[in-house]
Design goal:
Two copies of one chain form a homodimer.
Chain A (H helix, E strand, L loop, with lengths): L4 E4 L4 E3 L32 E6 L5 E4 H6 L3 E8 L22 E10 H8 L7 E11 L5 E9 H4 L5 E6 L2 E2 L9 E3 L12 E7 L6 H5 L2 E2 L8 E2 L6 E6 L3 E3 L2 E10 L5 E7 L7 E2 L1 E2 L9 E9 L3 E11 L23 E6 L2
Parallel strand pairs in A: 3-12, 16-23
Antiparallel strand pairs in A: 1-2, 3-4, 5-6, 6-9, 7-8, 7-12, 9-10, 9-11, 13-14, 15-17, 17-21, 18-19, 18-22, 20-21, 22-23
């Protein structure tokens, strides 16, 4: 198993090594981990989910209750909204993620709508709030839980799951087990881990992790836009840099977009703007990355710079540079890999 | 001797390894090498410099003639105008320099004014042109020599040298020997290597390497500004990245500016904008970098991002990001070094 690349020990935050991302799904021990607070200890046998708020019948569900509901299995790529933060200048505060805060898992769980149906969601419920069991002090000094809301439509989407399995195993604690929310296509913060409570809201939620974090705070902008869908991005997973011999090499990577399936990946092998189309190794799927490769024939000894960009079915192109924002989110800028070709 | 980091074998272009830059002067075999064309073979015994153009008495000088003139020795940092090009997005054409195309040498030679005095420069001479012995095909298909001009005032400055020694030895071939121009404070392209001819001009020179290269081609700008003085910049030469143990570490580097002496270096050890003053190990000198260091006490395991910035005596601050330009010059953006602290 490829080890994590540690970003912070406590709370635990760790990246996947890029070279390990060609394996699909990403193994549980390699899959990136983002924790806002210390990992809560959740007793699986005693776990109960409270479902309350703007609905007719508040519920409490055990894990067995959840597992008894109709289930859905889907593959989904999750990316931390702060992935790539170290590429921003000036460097914003926050976890200094390089590029490995992204991974792909196969998730199984009950669609949230299956849980909400018997509860009878009020017609006036505009959002659904999700609270994790994790909590801690924020800058104000207040102790808060990690909590995020979804708009009603997204909450009721059949692919929004209460997931209890990852890659065919019970969801591990570091990935939010026993149960996490899974919001495929969105940045990872939406997929609340260690899920403890689901509350239907008649008013939009304005908590810390909704209104003060995970928003795009752009210089000069009047409003802070909430982060939702992952922006189109590709990564080169090999070569990782270093020395290659002259000849034919495969440049390999992954590409994803939460907005629409990735329809094209292009690779540049030198400065100046020429982009070559890569081949896909996977079919387009709604929520997961596609692996791609390019045969690169290189004769000239010396330094070469490899770059890739993703283009999605809606025509969104991964940009050369992403807009700087105060909290350092959504940096989907094109990556550079420098290699030396030597006899 | 620390080996070069090769960027291109032919023509030969190579960086200095950053870890080797703490040594002053930079050893001859470590000092970065920039060649626009194949290195010319110059026979030292037959070398003659033609001095002609808008002056009263054209001259021809042998190396012995040059060495017989009053000499000057000075330390000067030279930086390639394309240093840091790989940090620009989109990546421009041109040699993909990372950060090591900068070095400091001790140069000895005759001030150009000592050569021009007996030749009797015309009062109408506005520039002096310098031609190297190196030549080759450019994009147009023409075969041209590497040639650059200086404004009259800069050409006659007492520190503008015809240098024949580097670090106390005869100037080596790869650094432009037997004789190169040395224009301290300016980007390296001004210090024409393998000097063959000096011509006084009554009109400004508009050759390829003057008007089409080594100019700042900014999007939307009406004119291309010529590159001259090196912009303020600092580099972290250690730690180089990788793993450190918790405790006290020295962050070390160099800082220079061709505009004015460096008066301050600041170091950031995390995102968010706090800058700590570094200590200088060298006095301020007009043309050379100053070594600096900062004692950094680090306890928290995990990833840390080190950055530094130079500020010169005229108040110019090394920027977080430098303006993108079509040819990829003058990228003096702040560098980031990512380290992991581990017990």
């Amino acid at each position: 198993l490829a080890a994590h690349v540690i970003v912070r020990r406590e709370p635990y935050n760790a990246e996947a090594p890029l070279a390990a991302l060609g394996e699909v799904p990403t193994p549980v021990g390699t899959f990136y981990v983002r924790c806002n607070f210390s990992m809560p200890r959740v007793d699986v046998r005693r776990w109960r989910l409270s479902v309350d708020g703007a609905l007719e019948r508040p519920l409490g569900l055990s894990l067995a209750d959840l597992r008894a509901l109709p289930a859905r299995t889907l593959a989904a790529t999750l990316e931390c909204a702060g992935n790539g933060r170290t590429g921003f200048a000036p460097l914003p505060k926050g976890e200094p993620w390089e590029l490995g805060a992204v991974s792909t898992g196969v998730w199984r769980g009950a669609p949230l709508r299956e849980v909400l149906a018997p509860a009878g969601l009020d017609s006036g419920a505009v959002e659904v709030l999700f609270e994790g069991a994790d909590h801690g002090a924020i800058e104000s000094g207040d102790d808060v839980r990690f909590a995020r809301s979804l708009p009603r439509d997204k909450a009721l989407h059949p692919d929004t799951l209460l997931a209890y399995e990852m890659n065919g195993e019970p969801l591990p604690a570091q990935h939010g087990g026993p149960v996490r929310l899974l919001v495929p296509g969105w940045y990872g913060m939406a997929s609340v881990k260690w899920l403890a409570r689901v509350t239907a809201l008649a008013e939009p939620f304005r908590g810390h992790f909704q209104a003060e974090r995970y928003v795009l705070d752009l210089p000069g902008a009047l409003e802070k836009a909430p982060l939702r869908e992952m922006r189109p991005r590709s990564l080169i997973t090999g070569p990782a840099g270093g020395v290659l011999s002259p000849g034919v090499h495969k440049v390999r990577g992954v590409a994803w977009s939460g907005v629409a399936p990735v329809s094209r990946v292009e690779v540049s092998v030198e400065g100046g703007g020429e982009w070559l189309p890569a081949l896909f190794l996977d079919e387009a799927q709604p929520y997961t990355w596609r692996r791609w490769e390019l045969e690169w024939q290189v004769r000239r000894p010396g330094r070469h710079v490899l770059r890739s960009r993703a283009i999605d079915a809606e025509g969104n192109i991964q940009p050369e540079a992403a807009p700087w924002n105060r909290l350092g989110y959504a940096n989907n800028a094109v990556q550079s890999v420098v290699v030396e070709v030597r006899e």
